[in-house]
Amino acid sequence: MKLFIGLGNPGTEYSRTRHNVGFMFIDFLATHYSAKPFQYNKKLLSQTTETVINDHKIILAKPQTYMNESGRAVFVLINFYKIKQEDIIVFHDDLDIKLGTFKIQKGKGPRVHNGIQSIEKALTSTNFWRGRIGIEHRDGPEKISGKEYVLQMLSDEERARLDFERYISEIEVLFQK
Fold first, then answer.
1. Which residues participate in the annotated binding site?
2. If one looks up domain 2-176 in CATH, what number appears?
C-alpha cells in the first residue's frame, strides 16, 4: 500500500490558488483512476479515498490542517495506515521549478516550503518522496514575494500548462522499482 498526499489549503477561497496544486493533482488522480468520492475523516485530519494503480492499493489524501500544519495530518495518516515513510509521496507546489515542470524526488524538495518543512519536522525525517509541481511563472526584475504569489489564483493559461496527464507515467514508474 502507498499513500499519496496532496498539499493545499482547505476552503473554496484557496481551491484555485497556486498553493493548492497538490490538492488539484490528487483530485486529478482520483478521477483518472476512478476512485470513490473523497470523505472527510476527522480522526485523520484529512479527506481520503482509495484507488488502485498497477495492482497497488493507493490511499489518496488531502490534509485539512492548512498548508503550514500539514505534518500533523501526515503523521496521523502514516501511523493509522501503518505505511513506511518511503511509501508516501507528497505532491506540492514548487517555486524552485518552472510552471508545468514536474519532478519526483526522494528526500529533495524546494529550498523553502512550509508544508514540506512541517512534514519533515513531524516525521523527523526527509526520507519520503516528493512530487514537485512547478508553479514559477513570475516575470520581470520586481517579482512579487513567493508568499503572496502562491496564494494568487492560477490563470486559465497556467492551469492548461499544468498538464497533469503528462505526470502519470512518471508516477507509474515508481511501481516498477
1. 14, 66, 68, 114
2. 3.40.50.1470
CA dist list (Å): 163 to 24, 46, 75, 110, 158:
11, 25, 30, 21, 9
Model confidence pLDDT, tens digit, residues 76-124: 999 999 999 999 999 999 999 999 999 999 988 777 899 999 999 999 9
Closest CA to 92 of 4, 2, 7, 3: 7
Whether 151 has a pLDDT exceeding 70, the answer reads yes
* Residue (of 131, 151, 152) closest to 68 by Cα position: 151
* Segment holding 58, helix H or strand E: strand 56-63
Catalytic residue flag (residue 19): yes
| Cβ within 8 Å of residue 132, ≥6 positions away | 92, 94, 96, 97, 102, 103, 104, 105, 109, 110
In three-state secondary structure terms, 75 is helix
- Annotated binding residues for tRNA, written as ranges, equal 14, 66, 68, 114
Dihedral (Cα; 111, 115, 121, 124), 10-degree rounding: -80
For residue 172, what is its C-alpha cell?
507509474
End-to-end Cα distance, the chain: 14
Considering 19, 32, 92, 137, which one is annotated as catalytic? Answer: 19
Q: Give the bridge partners for 102, in sequence order.
A: 133
